[in-house]
Amino acid sequence: QMQVVESGGGLVQPGESLRLSCVASGFTASDNLMQWFRQVEGKEREPVVGIDSMNSMLHYKGFTGARFTVSRDNAKNSVYLQMNSLRPEDTATYYCSANIRGIRIWGKGTLVTVSS
After folding, report:
1. Chain-centroid distance, C-alpha 12
2. Distance between CA atoms of 29 and 2, rounded to whole angstroms?
3. For 38-62, what is the mean pLDDT?
4. Sheet bearing 68-73, strands edge to edge
């Protein structure tokens, strides 16, 4: 069974950093497009950043700066979302997703709350 499981969310203060993890199982993450999305309460889910099978990082509209970066650890079949200089407006549920030959796999999400 193909699945992804996110972890690492929590409460952080503005300006702090946080790294989210996504562990894949049932498929090889490095062979596929892996993406991070987020969903702010009451808004649509939006893509944040991705990494493809060629190890190219993909930044999506609104996330073209260096605050959000993605990396992978092939040995752990995992991808990570590094978030820096977090702001209250970054408060959202963050989802890991795999696009496997047109089949999209979603995790259940991990909540990040940025608040003082």
Report:
1. 17
2. 10
3. 94
4. 3-7, 18-25, 78-83, 68-73
Encode pLDDT of 19-42 as tens digits: 999 999 999 999 999 999 999 999
Q: DSSP assignment, residue 67?
A: S
Q: Using CA atoms, how far apart are residues 101 and 63, in angstroms rounded to an integer?
A: 25
Q: How far is residue 115's CA from residue 44's CA, in Å, rounded to a whole number?
A: 21
Please name which of 100, 114, 98, 106 lies closest in space to residue 34, comparing C-alpha atoms.
Answer: 98
Q: Are 23 and 1 in contact (CB under 8 A)?
A: no
Which tokens hold the place of 29? 């993450």
Q: Count of residues for the chain?
A: 116
Closest CA to 53 of 76, 77, 30: 30
At position 112, the amino acid (one-letter code) is V
Instruction: Compute the distance between CA of residue 13 and CA of residue 114 in angstroms, rounded to an integer.
Output: 5
As a whole number of Å, the CA-based R_g of the chain is 13
The letter for the amino acid at 88 is P
